[in-house]
Amino acid sequence: MPSVLAVALAGSPAAAQSPTDSMRGAGQTSYRPAPAKAADSFVPPKDKVGRESSECSKLEKRRDEFLKANKKYFACLDSQNSTNRTRPEHRTGKSMRETLSADASISSIDELQHYCLNDPEEWKTFRDEACHWDLGLNWDIRDARTGALAGEVSLETFHYIFLANGSTNFSEQVWVHSASHWGKGSTAFYDISFTCLGDCRPTTEDGIAPTLATTDADGTWYFVSDLPTESYGRGQTYMQMSMTNADPNVLPGSAFIMSDAKIRCDTLVRHLQVPGCVFPNYVPTVSFSTSGLYPNVAQHIKDAQAAGRPGKPGVRPLHRLIDEYLQKKNRDTACPTSGPNVLPTAPDGSCDEYPFASTQEGAYTGDGVYSRRDVPLIENVAHGRDGVNRDFYVPNRIIHGDAFWVDIDGSGGSGGGPTPPDTQAPIIICPPEVTSTSITPALGQPETSDNADTSVTVTNNAPATFPYGTTIVTWRAVDDSGNEAICAQTVNIRYKFTGFYLGGNYIGDWDQAIQTAPYTLSFSFRVADYADTVISDLSVVTSVTWDASGATIGTPTFNAATGRIELSTWVPKAFNDQTRTLTVSLSDGSRHSVSIEFSTV
């Protein structure tokens, strides 16, 4: 196996340093809490991606269809992960745990590997990296005639995503381990590709070519988030796995599996004029010691938390405040420089407030309950400038609203959760505009993702049957916390239009007429509804115009014998030696044009 990751930094295809070392930075503290976990197993949006795309329970209902296509077997994903049925089996020598543990390149992420390999099926994230050990990729090869099991491929995957503080490039590596196979599963091939949903796009890959299901494989995919200055975007990777077979009688299967690791890239961090990406669901911890660089400030924080002030890991987090005016209001409320509420300090002392003035829980912006204490001025300044801002806010890309913990002396417990209340709306991208002659058109499905929740409820207000004309369909995405996002899709329902006839001859949308104007032309055209029923109501024609002045246009009439709407138009001599266009507008909002080239005889 190759090294664990060749991450793309600043456009480079690889970086030599260890992912773990490169992301710690001099400002990071040694204390590191457990990684964040997803609250529930992933249930992907049905409209976009999900394992149900080739679920056996769904494909079982289509067996007759497969037989008509001359496919005696079909590949499907056993989403139930059934283990109680009797079958012959060939199991490989090593498990995924043994395979990865034996790989020396994994030692650079042994801390994260420990969490993932000892607690499979859930994504684990730190601020800058995430991993997932998936045991559930069990592919069945079933007999389309009887539904009986004819073979199986059981795969395990290990995903590792690495982000970069200094670039909006990020990458995902996946190892695939063939855990067992038998029957027609022994001649199956799998192929994997990745893409990104949201404000990101794939760039390059060192991917997995179609590989026999009895062998292991690995590959790396690279992505980038293109962001303007002073902005942020969110993204989420998802994997497509295709299962084909050397036996042409086996119908291939395909599954889409989205990661639970939501990514945020931004260009917003102050004092750091470079972009970067983080996993925002992971709540980072800043740690101080009462015997460290800032002993007096640390003791103050420890006492304040003991008295019920927020920030202690696992209790109630603090949230970043960017607004400098409100930060000053927080300082002035807790530590005024004049008036009766001034805190007496030693000659070399200063007023230290907690919660920090740079948080939404500060003395003014919070609940009004705060703590303050006289601490040495030099220590107070250094703690805020270096301990909090330089060594924590910046490397962890803590932007406005981000939650974080403050741990003193390592006694705060686990800092990876609980996750603070979710107030971020989902991302929803509507399907493209639809134009159709059907009154029940296929609208497609929107792309959705969310910063916190693994499932998003998607609804729309589309009617059962659409009227002719233009309808705006509103799509809504609602996450588990009730946050809502909407987008609009345009749906155009059009009548069937046959093209133009000139005289009795069909000309479509162009003709050459050799004549000397003035001249009277007789046009006709057929309009029908979705069922191909001819429209005789002349109100369907809303206007008829030439692209030049001087012509006159008669009143349209309906010819029952031909089933066409007819109209006559007189054109002036000025049209000679020109190409002019006649346009008919219909009540459905459509416009149909025919161009006529006039030539002098």
Describe this structure in words.
The protein has four domains: 49-79 and 111-278, no CATH class; 285-408, no CATH class; 427-493, Immunoglobulin-like; 496-599, Immunoglobulin-like, CATH 2.60.40.10. The protein is built from eight helices and 37 strands. The strands form eight sheets. Strands 1, 2, 3, 4, 5, 6, 7, 9, 11 and 13 form a ten-stranded mixed sheet that branches. Strands 8, 10, 12, 14, 15 and 16 form a six-stranded antiparallel sheet that branches. Strands 28, 29, 31, 33, 34 and 35 form a six-stranded antiparallel sheet that branches. A hairpin with a 4-residue loop joins strand 34 (557-559) and strand 35 (564-571). The chain is 12% helix and 39% strand. With 601 residues, it is mainly β.
Short note summarizing the structure:
By secondary structure, the protein is mainly beta. 12% of the residues lie in helices and 39% in strands.
Question: Keywords, please?
Answer:
about 600 residues, mainly beta, Immunoglobulin-like, 4 domains, flat, disordered N terminus
Please outline the helices and strands:
Elements: H1 19-24, E1 36-37, H2 56-59, H3 63-68, E2 73-77, E3 90-91, H4 96-101, H5 110-118, E4 124-125, E5 129-143, E6 149-162, E7 169-183, E8 188-198, E9 201-206, E10 208-212, E11 217-224, E12 232-245, E13 250-251, E14 253-258, E15 263-266, E16 276-278, E17 285-288, H6 295-306, E18 318-319, H7 324-334, E19 349-354, E20 371-376, H8 377-393, E21 403-408, E22 427-429, E23 434-436, E24 447-449, E25 457-460, E26 469-478, E27 484-493, E28 496-502, E29 505-508, E30 510-514, E31 519-528, E32 541-546, E33 552-553, E34 557-559, E35 564-571, E36 578-586, E37 591-599
Parallel strand pairs: 2-13, 17-21, 23-27, 30-37
Antiparallel strand pairs: 1-4, 2-5, 3-7, 4-5, 5-6, 6-7, 7-11, 8-10, 8-12, 9-11, 12-14, 12-15, 15-16, 18-21, 19-20, 22-24, 25-26, 26-27, 28-29, 28-31, 31-35, 32-36, 33-35, 34-35, 36-37
